[in-house]
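[job 4471] stage=fold_predict status=RUNNING
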Amino acid sequence: MEHSPNDVTERLNDLEIKSSYTEDLLEQLNMTIYRQQQQIDSLILQVAQLRLQSQNAGQDGGARNLRDELPPHY
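[job 4471] inference complete, writing structure tokens
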């Protein structure tokens, strides 16, 4: 099963093109994962801050102003 030099060259070119697309896709996926990890880290920090605020508000007791808890349309 011999292939002509043109067939081999064409197959090699096709493989190089596929490899290039695969590398590009991998880089895009890596960037997506990186951005998602940044968002996750930010959300974890926000949750920690909200927990701290909630604990501080609970410790303050009745020092809260009930008007602050009204929905904005009132």
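[job 4471] summary: The CA atoms of residues 68 and 74 lie 11 Å apart.
[job 4471] exit 0
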